[in-house]
Amino acid sequence: MKVLLTGGSGDLGVLLTRQLTQQGDEVVNLDVAPPHEAVRGEAVHIAASILDRDALKEAVQGVGCVVHIAAWHGIHEHQNTKNAYDFHDLNVTGTFNLFEAAAAAGVRKAVLISSTSTDDRYGLYGHTKVLNEEMARAYAHRHNMDILTLRPRAFIPPWNRTVYQDFTEWANWFWKGAVHAEDVCQATLKAVNFLKADKKPEIPAQILTIDGAYDYTVGELENWTDNSFAARYGAEAEKLAQSFGLDTARKPKVLGSAEAETLIGYRPAYSLKNLLEELEKYGKNGPQFPLAA
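Now predict its structure.
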């Protein structure tokens, strides 16, 4: 199947390009940025923005499924690098342009990458994702499109050095409860394959929360104490984590991914156990980019 990725040169798009091409799909990457060197040549690259209607009209031709990733993200609001006009132009107008172009071309399958930041529905970023989800519902109803909306937690990976200066900075963020980029890739691939098999969402533009994996039991979380980490992972792991400045007394916030696990077979894999193993093995540098030569 021919799959269009918007924003396919970004962190998720690169991982997804490799997974899709390995299973035999044809990938088209529409992104103003050049393709990542790790997957260069694995996808057709259209150097354009989702604000370019003519480019979108070209990009959706013959496409079986669209995966919409392109957006200004929460980090741009946090760092104050984009304003309300920027967020609305790309995230809202751009998303409208994409859905309209896809519908006009007869594309009937789409995966929308939303965000759990919809909880901050009046924030610059969160509000645009609320509008995106409503737009997806409208196109599902108006054009009979099969759309799955994925709401991952923030998933900028530890190897992205434009955001995290080292692995321990990323680990401090992940520690509170999060999802790894590779798990988001897994969920997105399974959503594409669900639609590819002509399966239907249970409701139009069904929303699936995408959370990470957790080693703690429900009881451990409900009866959390400052010693819960050591009780689960051991004293040596606690010593290791604390040596890198991690707060082992901090209770992670779990959102869960029950609907995604049931509907598309998503199985989150990366947990604090994996983080600790990588911290012990690689230290502050962390693991290298997984598609590195």
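DSSP finds twelve helices and seven strands in the chain.
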